[in-house]
Amino acid sequence: MRWLKFTAAGKTSWGIVEGDNVIAVNGDPFGEWQRGTQSHALKDVKIELPLIPRTFYCVGLNYVKHLKEAADKRGEVHEITRRTENG
């Protein structure tokens, strides 16, 4: 069974892929669910990201400092070079 999150006709929901079709599901793959009655052609749906990550990673102006700190914690020595706008 292959699950996907999709949008069709302005509505986002979970579905099961069967051949070239997506069968809408009432519920989600993480809990209780029932097979719905709506079916969409796979080519006509927009496939969405299945999950929103719990953690987001960002890089800021102190990125080089964090790289050096992480290398120090692992007991590694890294040669980190900075690139400037000119190359």
Walk me through what this model shows:
The protein is mainly beta and 87 residues long. It has a domain at 2-48: FAH (SH3 type barrels, Roll). The protein contains 1 helix and 5 strands, in the order E-E-E-E-E-H. A hairpin with a 5-residue loop joins strand 3 and strand 4 (33-41).
The assigned structural class equals: mainly beta
The fourth-level CATH homologous superfamily of the domain at 2-48 is FAH
Tell me the helix content: 10-25%
Stated plainly, the CATH topology of the domain at 2-48 is called SH3 type barrels
Distance between the termini: 50 Å
How would a crystallographer describe the biggest sheet?
5 strands, antiparallel
User: What is the CATH architecture term of the domain at 2-48?
Assistant: Roll
Biggest sheet strand order reads: 4-3-2-1-5
What is the percentage of strand-forming residues? 35-45%
Overall radius of gyration: 22 Å
Fold blueprint:
Blueprint: E1 2-8, E2 11-18, E3 21-27, E4 33-41, E5 46-48, H1 63-74
Antiparallel strand pairs: 1-2, 1-5, 2-3, 3-4
Quick overview of this protein structure:
The chain is mainly beta.
What descriptive keywords fit this protein?
5 strands; mainly beta; SH3 type barrels; elongated; five-stranded antiparallel β-sheet; 87 residues; 1 helix
